[in-house]
């Protein structure tokens, strides 16, 4: 599980949050913006009915969540296949040429500022303790925290998209037909601001820039789709 890293000195770092934080923020952000924009675009069309709007919003929620899950699963599966292929190749090299692999590990430590003699000693001890784990971590840059997990990634993306998308759909269902565009737009911008603030806090970033960028692009997306829906004059 991704956690804040705590060193013996008590110092904490936030870098291990970046994996799940990126996926959660991206999924929820996509859910809010894409579904809200579609609802606003449909609602802006003079010929659209409340039923049209609700069907479009619901279809966007379901289709978007499934699309996010499928896309993330395929992407992360490809990453997992590559990681496994690299590990298998490294395992073969460890069997075929252990001395060369020890030298490679020592060279990595030297490049990071360790003296050659100490780097060689550390490399030999790491090889004796867990050779594949040492090369996976220090040569390939792989770790358990950041390992590719396709099913987990797919479920997380679908869930975060749904969380972001469900509120605009609910608002479209209960708001008066004449107020749908405004109500969904305001709600979406508030949700995006909250999402930006949560992401900034969890990642240790500055609050205002994070809020500004997500609300700005959300407003642009809804504005453009609203203009398109109004220009075509029919439910889309």
What does this structure look like?
With 236 residues, the protein is an all-alpha fold. The chain has one domain (14-232). 79% of the residues lie in helices and 2% in strands. It is built from seven helices and two strands; from the N terminus they run E-E-H-H-H-H-H-H-H. It has helices spanning 18-44, 50-96, 98-111, 116-138, 150-174, 180-203, 207-232, and strands at residues 5-6, 12-13. A two-stranded antiparallel sheet has the order 1-2. The radius of gyration is 24 Å and the shape is elongated. 30% of the residues are buried. The model is unreliable at 1-19 (pLDDT under 50).
If helices are DSSP runs of H or I spanning 4 or more residues, what is the number of helices? 7
Note poorly predicted spans.
1-19
* Percent helix range: over 70%
Indicate how many domains the architecture comprises: 1
Instruction: Output the structural class.
Output: mainly alpha
For the biggest sheet, the summary is:
2 strands, antiparallel
Rg, nearest Å: 24 Å
Strand content: under 5%
The succession of helices and strands, N to C, reads EEHHHHHHH
Write down how many β-strands occur, each being a DSSP E stretch of 2 or more residues: 2
| Mean pLDDT figure | 81
Shape: elongated
How would the blueprint of this fold be written?
Layout: E1 5-6, E2 12-13, H1 18-44, H2 50-96, H3 98-111, H4 116-138, H5 150-174, H6 180-203, H7 207-232
Antiparallel strand pairs: 1-2
Helix pairs in contact: 1-2, 1-5, 1-6, 1-7, 2-3, 2-4, 2-5, 3-4, 5-6, 6-7
Summary tags:
7 helices, mainly alpha, elongated, two-stranded antiparallel sheet, 236 residues
């Amino acid at each position: 599980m991704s956690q804040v890293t705590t060193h013996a000195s008590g110092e904490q770092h936030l870098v291990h949050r970046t994996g799940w934080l990126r996926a959660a923020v991206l999924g929820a952000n996509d859910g809010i913006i894409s579904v809200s924009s579609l609802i606003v675009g449909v609602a802006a069309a003079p010929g659209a009915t409340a039923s049209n709007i609700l069907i479009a919003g619901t279809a966007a929620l379901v289709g978007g969540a499934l699309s996010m899950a499928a896309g993330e699963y395929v992407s992360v599966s490809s990453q997992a296949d590559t990681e496994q292929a690299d590990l298998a190749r490294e395992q073969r090299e460890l069997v075929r040429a252990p001395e060369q692999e020890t030298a490679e590990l020592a060279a990595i430590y030297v490049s990071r500022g360790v003296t050659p003699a100490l780097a060689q000693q550390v490399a030999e001890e790491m090889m004796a303790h867990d050779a594949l784990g040492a090369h996976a971590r220090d040569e390939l840059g792989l770790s358990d925290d950041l390992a590719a997990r396709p099913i987990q990634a797919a479920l997380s993306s679908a869930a975060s998209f749904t969380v972001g998308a469900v509120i605009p759909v609910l608002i479209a269902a209960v708001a008066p037909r004449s107020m749908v565009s405004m109500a969904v737009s305001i709600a979406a911008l508030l949700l995006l601001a909250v999402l930006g603030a949560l992401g900034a806090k969890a990642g240790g970033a500055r609050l205002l820039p994070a809020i500004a960028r997500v609300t700005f692009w959300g407003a642009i997306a809804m504005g453009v789709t609203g203009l398109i829906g109004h220009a075509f004059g029919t439910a889309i």
